[in-house]
Write a structure and sequence with these properties.
heterodimer, A: mainly beta, 5-stranded antiparallel β-sheet, 9 strands, globular, B: alpha/beta, 12 strands
């Protein structure tokens, strides 16, 4: 499982250690101190920390739309950690570090790239660079 | 005990109609010839290859001497790990003469990765994120942003590598390209164009070591191996195939390996006359210049524009064209760097000989899953 439902909203499921370290996806032992971790839902909104455009089709088992379309991918800073994710909702090369984004999970994430979660622009959120 | 290099041998890098093992043998024989020794004088050898077969299979054509041959595999640090093992054998007194051998033969488009091998689930690859070039681009985009560096410097660095490769008979890619051509190449993962990546290739490399004290009995052009240091990632570095990154990032393995190598050698980056730095892609070379201590983060553009990294500059870098011009046969790549430094220090680098009468040299490897080996050499 990489998602969980909190108050009717699907969120990414991470893990947290007593030492403050978070991971995604969840794992049982902490990558920093080796301690036991517990599952925890991750924040659904953040800012784009870095990104690129995937212009060449990834190799299998990539589930490509037909025909393949270049897509943006980046790391989203959620405060407690940064999560890697496809990006949707803008032209692939028009993203900027610091863009406010929010999570979309499940069927709603199935746009041009058939993936289980994406982040898309979150208008109205404060933009932090 | 101080360790010195008394022989080096290289099978050219590129694509060849022979086995990886054959390339390892050619390199090993060349290194022994260079040292004026035969295989039966070698007390200990370490060798590595990812796709070329078991390294210890070389002995069936080198001579079944019964001596220890240790096969090593350590990702991009495979050559460095072989060198480390051989160097330990000399330092500890277990061997009078030791060898490090590396060879490889990768298919076009090698290094495809299986999520399970990295402890990852299929969704990560199904979503299109299990792509090494994508990782390089994202790490670089962040670096350019944080240090306000123009992507133009990437094309300049590749142009430099290809110019040096054009002067290197053993290199694979020997056609220079202008920075404009490189920048205008097909974009693969922004900001990296197709010319800005190294490719999997083939080749072999071997080095013969002995103690510095004994070295003068074998040759008058020994190169002292002042340091070989190997480090792996700490928590919080930015590595390939990471579904998440720590909230606070820390220095990568290169920083720690380079620092340790300089500390062991007792000299610093400013004392180095020629250097070979891992250039899996243009951004790696850019970042490694600063991570290894040769400039401040963000100061790379000045080094490039002032010509300091050219063969005739203050710090000639990747004088044989690096991985960009040679490709990257995993097992051999790190040893190639050390051999290039040895040739430069000995004044045997031909058309690419740096003119600054180099006395000290540095090599650096970085690779998946977050490890680095650095060496310091002097004559």
């Amino acid at each position: 499982m990489i998602t969980t439902v909190v108050d009717g909203q699907t969120r990414l499921l991470g893990a947290r250690c007593g030492c403050g370290t978070h991971t995604f996806p969840p794992q049982q032992r902490c990558p920093k101190c080796g301690g036991d971790m517990v599952d925890t839902p991750l924040p659904a909104e953040g800012t784009l920390w870095t990104w690129t455009v995937q212009r060449i089709p990834p190799k299998p088992p990539y589930r490509s739309p037909d025909p393949f379309e270049p897509f943006a991918v980046g790391y989203v800073d959620l405060g407690v950690l940064k999560v890697e994710s496809p990006l949707r909702g803008k032209a692939a090369d028009e993203w900027t570090i610091g863009d406010a984004v929010r999570l979309v999970v499940g069927d709603a994430a199935h746009g041009s790239a058939p993936v289980t979660f994406v982040f898309e622009p979150a208008p109205g959120m404060a933009v932090v660079s | 005990v101080s360790v010195s290099i008394i022989g080096v041998g290289l099978h050219p890098f590129g694509r060849f109609p022979v086995s990886g093992r054959e390339m390892g043998l050619v390199a090993a024989k060349a290194a022994l010839d260079d040292a004026g020794l035969t295989w039966d004088r070698v007390d200990f050898a370490a060798g590595g290859s990812r796709d070329g077969g078991h390294a210890d299979a070389l002995v069936s054509e080198l001579g079944l001497s019964g001596r220890p041959f240790m096969s090593v595999y350590n990702g991009c640090a495979t050559g460095g790990s072989a060198l480390l093992a051989a160097s330990y054998a000399i330092e500890s007194g277990h061997a009078e003469v030791a060898m490090a051998i590396g060879f490889d033969k990768h298919d076009r488009g090698a290094f495809a990765s299986n999520p399970a091998d990295y402890g990852l689930q299929d969704w990560y690859a199904e979503a299109g994120m299990m792509v090494t070039t994508q990782f390089f681009a994202m790490k670089l985009q962040r670096y350019l942003h944080e240090h306000a560096i123009s992507p133009r410097v990437l094309a300049e660095l590749i142009a430099l590598s290809l110019r040096n490769g054009a002067r290197t008979p053993t290199a694979w890619r020997r056609n220079a390209l202008s920075a404009d051509e490189i920048a205008a190449g097909t974009m693969v993962n922004d900001p990296l164009t197709k010319y800005m990546f190294c490719s999997p290739s083939e080749g072999g490399a071997a080095i013969v070591l002995t103690s510095t004290e004994r070295a003068r009995h074998f040759t008058d052009r020994a190169v002292e191996l002042r340091a070989v240091e190997f480090r792996t990632r700490k928590y919080g570095t930015f590595e390939v195939f990471s579904p998440s990154l720590a909230d606070e990032l820390v220095d990568g393995a290169s920083v720690h390996a380079a620092r340790a190598a300089f500390e062991t050698a007792g000299i610093g980056p400013d004392d180095i006359d020629v250097a070979q730095l891992q250039d899996t892609e243009a951004g790696a070379l850019l970042m490694h210049l600063a991570e290894c201590g040769f400039c401040e983060h963000g100061d790379q553009e000045r080094l490039v524009l002032d010509g300091e990294l050219e063969l005739g500059g203050r710090l000639p870098v990747n004088t044989d064209g690096g991985c960009i011009a040679n490709g990257e046969p995993i097992g051999a790549s790190g040893l190639r760097q050390v051999i290039e430094c040895a040739l430069q220090l000995q004044g045997r680098a031909g058309d690419r000989q740096v003119p600054n009468d180099p006395r000290t040299a540095f090599t650096h490897v970085y690779g998946a899953p977050g490890l680095s080996t650095c060496t310091v050499l002097s004559r």
